[in-house]
Amino acid sequence: MTIQTAVLIETLTALGAEVRWCSCNIFSTQDHAAAAIASDSAAVFAWKGETLQEYWWCTERALDWGPTGGPDLIVDDGGDATLLIHEGVKAEEVYEKTRQLPDPSSTDNAEFQIVLTIIRDGLKADPKKYTRMKERLVGVSEETTTGVKRLYQMQANGTLLFPAINVNDSVTKSKFDNLYGCRHSLPDGLMRATDVMIAGKVAVVCGYGDVGKGCAAALKQAGARVIVTEIDPICALQALMEGLQVLTLEDVVSEADIFVTTTGNKDIIMVNHMRKMKNNAIVCNIGHFDNEIDMLGLENYPGVKRITIKPQTDRWVFPETNTGIIVLAEGRLMNLGCATGHPSFVMSCSFTNQVIAQLELWKEKATGKYEKKVYVLPKHLDEKVAALHLGKLGANLTKLTKDQADYISVPIEGPYKPPHYRY
Amino acid sequence: MTIQTAVLIETLTALGAEVRWCSCNIFSTQDHAAAAIASDSAAVFAWKGETLQEYWWCTERALDWGPTGGPDLIVDDGGDATLLIHEGVKAEEVYEKTRQLPDPSSTDNAEFQIVLTIIRDGLKADPKKYTRMKERLVGVSEETTTGVKRLYQMQANGTLLFPAINVNDSVTKSKFDNLYGCRHSLPDGLMRATDVMIAGKVAVVCGYGDVGKGCAAALKQAGARVIVTEIDPICALQALMEGLQVLTLEDVVSEADIFVTTTGNKDIIMVNHMRKMKNNAIVCNIGHFDNEIDMLGLENYPGVKRITIKPQTDRWVFPETNTGIIVLAEGRLMNLGCATGHPSFVMSCSFTNQVIAQLELWKEKATGKYEKKVYVLPKHLDEKVAALHLGKLGANLTKLTKDQADYISVPIEGPYKPPHYRY
Amino acid sequence: MTIQTAVLIETLTALGAEVRWCSCNIFSTQDHAAAAIASDSAAVFAWKGETLQEYWWCTERALDWGPTGGPDLIVDDGGDATLLIHEGVKAEEVYEKTRQLPDPSSTDNAEFQIVLTIIRDGLKADPKKYTRMKERLVGVSEETTTGVKRLYQMQANGTLLFPAINVNDSVTKSKFDNLYGCRHSLPDGLMRATDVMIAGKVAVVCGYGDVGKGCAAALKQAGARVIVTEIDPICALQALMEGLQVLTLEDVVSEADIFVTTTGNKDIIMVNHMRKMKNNAIVCNIGHFDNEIDMLGLENYPGVKRITIKPQTDRWVFPETNTGIIVLAEGRLMNLGCATGHPSFVMSCSFTNQVIAQLELWKEKATGKYEKKVYVLPKHLDEKVAALHLGKLGANLTKLTKDQADYISVPIEGPYKPPHYRY
Amino acid sequence: MTIQTAVLIETLTALGAEVRWCSCNIFSTQDHAAAAIASDSAAVFAWKGETLQEYWWCTERALDWGPTGGPDLIVDDGGDATLLIHEGVKAEEVYEKTRQLPDPSSTDNAEFQIVLTIIRDGLKADPKKYTRMKERLVGVSEETTTGVKRLYQMQANGTLLFPAINVNDSVTKSKFDNLYGCRHSLPDGLMRATDVMIAGKVAVVCGYGDVGKGCAAALKQAGARVIVTEIDPICALQALMEGLQVLTLEDVVSEADIFVTTTGNKDIIMVNHMRKMKNNAIVCNIGHFDNEIDMLGLENYPGVKRITIKPQTDRWVFPETNTGIIVLAEGRLMNLGCATGHPSFVMSCSFTNQVIAQLELWKEKATGKYEKKVYVLPKHLDEKVAALHLGKLGANLTKLTKDQADYISVPIEGPYKPPHYRY
């Protein structure tokens, strides 16, 4: 719930939607944006600095339109709303058959315990709530790598309950928001949280996907020496071609000043890495969930002390060495927690994709065009998103002649590239 | 036929192949490399500075193993060998049915007239040559955007005569050779041909695909102010995000110092553009055929004078203004004509793809795995190409744990990305 | 009064000084830093958001040690403390001879009216205050271009009252703080104040000195297209060599998105420029006083409306067009007003120069080494500042052999460069 | 004797001079440029690939105008002509007093033995040649760091025989030719000599002065990982601020792929370093004389084998390991030996300084303005050189108002900066 999200809500409202809103991250709500939206555009269930309990309570509340209503469409970011509905439906089906309620103690995952608790408590009051919701739902559009991965898994398992549009893999999303957004918001977050001089520092970027590429570019340009860690040999070779060293975290853990995780995976920086870091090394995550960094291991490290410098900026001091590291945003997305997220221009690209996806789902709701599968937007819509943003930057596009279009076998008005084109 | 191609030939020979070789470009043969190969590895039909007649004669000769032999596999670059065989077969089929010989005057295209002439002349001597050839052929692997486009057109038309592997769209080809290769070889060609100082100049890059991105990066880094022309709004927006201005050629034609075409299309810089350029503006092509630049229009411009500064560097003077422009490599690929092409490291990536493709075609020749279609290499082979090149650059890859691999749903040993991933 | 200044104060205190402190800028005091210092290290006369009256009251108060004391040394930044003393002494001399008090109405400059008022009011109470102060003063060290310029003018006019060390022109100040400091703090200030995406925007940097070079580099690296304005042909040629366009403000005023003044001069962006800017163009100053931007003209523009978005971020709307521009920090230094100034590492270089200068002045106070002139630090001290900062960044210096040192005629231990060397 | 030098000669000739010319480097003469000049503008004593004997013979011959003439002015580059005259005069003075001839065996330096031999042989024929020469000489202008260092030493020793203008330390020379010239010509030389892909390689730049800065920037931008060696802590800190690692040669000698010396000192890369390098590591010098690299040690290394790949590109194979390194231009300036030196635009800046210096010396020859000392050009002439080059790059300078000029205390028409300004 940033200013940019607020404009998205206003846009959807202007298009005729009735909107209810919750956040995708306990730290990322900008309270002034939430307040503005709450006053005139949508019901808002979010504030900066929620607990996990509050976060899931908000998610559940946002989905509740009262007895006769419910969402027709979901605009998702991270997939938590979609997850809650799917888990809810699963529990209701089990309950209908067996009268068994979901058991939070059946999982070790603290956050999932909360999800199960919320479903269990709701089930007692209304054993068909999520089932009615899924029956009404026309579809979801999802914009993160993480959320999309879940959708494809559900598609593969045959458990996806409604059509989904993967907005994340629009070119105008993944190659813009992920890359250029992070190139902007990583240094922004570092500066606001720590005021550290980036020039001259050694920075480790874990992962060299689109997010990692944006982060590495930003750090290199600001004068840091950047070292990349990668599992994928192709991405590793790309890093090398840009003059970046590719090493393992173990190789550099005690030498670097700044560590950034961008992997979308878990267990990237473990407490045993953190113990070996230099005093006041900065550790942050811009990739995915807080489990990229071993926050659990850190919190439970015997004798560790947490000193909050300011909100979202904590110094953790290890007892053996009395040296400490600076962890940003409690291991969660630092650009949302410590700065204001991605800037408007790039979010406009992403959200234009979201709006176009929502319009498409709604327009085709009765045609059967979209089954219970995951779709990407067709390329001409992707190109349209880009075209809509060129005027603001003063660009003049060149027009193909008929002859040229025929020569390269594309329509004059596009789309111009085959589906596999990588940009 | 560069030094790198020579090593490819030596590699194929070492793997057991008997190789015959011709060039894909009338200017790109390095005679010392050709001589070395001719002396010990392969029959070579190429030299630097062929006429178009000689070029196609070479192509035809390279394919001729004598009465009892013929190629089993083709390693193609630009698709001219594949084209000749397809046109040859088509002509032989017509001839068999109708006794009609191909008529060179049936086309306006000067180069295609040569092709038809060669086929016609061969047809009289042996009316089944190309037919026998296509029957023997196990497949082709092709490495250029241009050649691949032709293959897909033949696949679409149902005229493709044997299986084809599209090596161009391996990530380790298109995102390396095209991008990093041109980032190296464009300034190399400019410097060798003209010694021009790039810093401070205004450079126009027509097209912002992988080749254009490499060229624009090289020119920007060398201190030029770079302006991009594009038809595709997505690529245009990428250029803008890198701080490059996006305008039409008309907007800047009389202001810029250096013009580079990278489009893969035709009719990009016309003689009417060239007339308006500043004195000694440099015009060159690194994208595709010489028809990116209107060489025909230039040559036929009334009163134009061509002054050859040195081979591949011509000054063309217009009679009205008595000012001239510098055209490199007669409008053909300037990095091959004016420098030595791409450097070995990146060509090794491309050629490793070629070798792997050739091995794959040969291994599967009897299994029916490959039909008369166009295939890209599977991602694990693409990743293997990258992995083979990391050691030379001192990289240490990170290994996934089992737990992490499960978490992101990939095998520990890869492949790590979904097919649509863009890198 | 940033965190870095606080550490400087603690350092001076630890070296034995008794410190009183005021700010050099009405917006730049970080209240938490001021509070920390006030509690244990020094008397502080500064807070964020002073009026000009309050600012000069603070300056006067900071200099007042009571009847028996007074400053022995001044650490100056911008030269206002030095100015006040010089103006005070001048007024006291006139008063002693003529009994004339200074007349604030004798000047049009609103700020100088305040200075004269403060001196006039003080003069009635104690007509010898500044005279006693200058007699006690051993010297001043000054770190800004602006302050140094005043000192050289006073030296040229023969009015300098005590020795001065020009810390600004230490290499480890001007080529670090001005260049690398601004490269960091300009985007920091822009992001914090406006969250604007820099990539894709057109930015005008007025002035290409060290500050301008840092700003232009930061903006270019962040993906802006940067246009430079310059009066000096050498600096202009440097900009061109980096691929930056050099134009006048008039050429681009209605096309650009971001305007930054870095000149150290006045009247750079006038209200007539601002009227022609695009809606929501951002205008800011990182060079010098707020008169780089015509704030007076803006404030007095008929019908103009000021909308404060948040402190230090104002939108000024012109009545004719109803479009507005965003002015940062009321035209004062935006990196101090909208962000936290330069980061610690580079300020450490600057302040190490200050401390070394203070130690030098104090050590030589009785030797007559320093006359009433302006001095720069000797090169071996400049090199020492750099050497003290290398360890933190993991650098290993190479040592000259005796033979090599003789060959290039420098001592093994330095200094290594002639005085005119430009770095 | 490059194309650019040829234009300088034509310019001097057009201004009325009679010119005789020799080279400053045994490899750098471009024979086509020399031939063109010899045919219509000046007597030329130079060819590509001289022996050292031939080189000094050429220098002596170029200075010999026959019995009645002699040079009035010298345009020097490296100071060898100036050296020969000073050594000649010294020898003639000794000879006049003592009848002792110079003894080549009095020195270990092979090149200086040649100088003494030439002087000795000339002395027998004409014992007053150099004395007459120095009496006629109005002055010299010198453009290299190395040549200037010698001039200042002679000034310090009181042995300078005529006025000298240090053109090297014009801003428009040292901050342009050295920096931007090398940024262009280092990769140019590497590419032409070796075709090596720079991206992904580890490059060591020895020295981070202007030349080193240009080289490091070029290598970094081309995708290399750059490590700098430095003796000067200030330059080292500058490298760090650009994200470059600062280490000693010993730290990285066995890890790097490309080594470049830029120091102006001797004994930078010794044979014991070269023995430890990776196979096919590239070693080159762009700083100064060939003694930056221990060519003598390499040539005399027991069992070493030299394999000439092509002129100026030698592979030296060590017997113990049978691995070899690639040495460019026999350790001499690789941009002159392997490419064509700096491009015209930047050489035009340097040579405009030379021409202005020559005009100044000649205009003031009778006024006594210039004594037997070393002078730099006044800043207004330095600014004039820059101003003359702006139009070609399309720049529009801003003009100061009278009010602004007064405010910063400079004349409206410049010069704009104090002498110590570093740019």
UniProtKB/TrEMBL annotation, chains A, B, C, D:
EC number: 3.13.2.1
One MF annotation (Gene Ontology) recorded for this entry: adenosylhomocysteinase activity
Pathway(s) where this gene product acts: Amino-acid biosynthesis; L-homocysteine biosynthesis; L-homocysteine from S-adenosyl-L-homocysteine: step 1/1
Family of the protein in this entry: Belongs to the adenosylhomocysteinase family.
Cofactor, free-text remark: Binds 1 NAD(+) per subunit.
UniProt KW Hydrolase keyword: yes
Cofactor(s) needed for function: NAD(+)
InterPro entries (UniProt xref): Adenosylhomocyst_ase-like_sf (IPR042172), Adenosylhomocysteinase-like (IPR000043), Ado_hCys_hydrolase_NAD-bd (IPR015878), NAD(P)-bd_dom_sf (IPR036291), S-Ado-L-homoCys_hydrolase_CS (IPR020082)
Domain of life according to the entry: Eukaryota
Enzyme class: hydrolase
Signal peptide as annotated in the record: none
Organism name: Gossypium klotzschianum
UniProt-annotated binding residues for NAD(+): 144-146, 209-214, 230, 286-288, 335, 342
Keywords of the record: Hydrolase, NAD, One-carbon metabolism
Residue span, S-adenosyl-L-homocysteine hydrolase NAD binding domain: 178-341
GO biological process: one-carbon metabolic process; S-adenosylmethionine cycle
SMART domains referenced in this protein's UniProt entry, alphabetically: AdoHcyase, AdoHcyase_NAD
Statement: the UniProt record of this protein carries the keyword Iron: no
Name of this chain's protein: Adenosylhomocysteinase
Record field: catalytic activity: S-adenosyl-L-homocysteine + H2O = L-homocysteine + adenosine
One GO location term (cellular component): cytosol
